[in-house]
Amino acid sequence: MKPQAQEIFDRFYAVLFDSDSDKGEEVLVTSLAKRCALLHAEMLLENANYSRSGELIDWWIMDLKEEIENL
Description:
Helix content: over 70%
Shape: elongated
Radius of gyration: 14 Å
Structural class: mainly alpha
Number of strands: 0
Largest sheet: none
Mean pLDDT: 81
Strand content: under 5%
Order of helices and strands: HHH
Distance between the termini: 12 Å
Number of helices: 3
């Protein structure tokens, strides 16, 4: 699960962090990227198709959120 969490975080981080930015902004960008990745996971949970394996989807998304929080 950690690779998926890292991939989602990295995508948001890349969008938020411009290579010309001050390194002092890196902490802010990291925090924002994590919040965006968690929001993405929440949206996945809200829009999950529960007609198949609803509990499995819940577990996967909750595990994803935990890994994002640990980044």
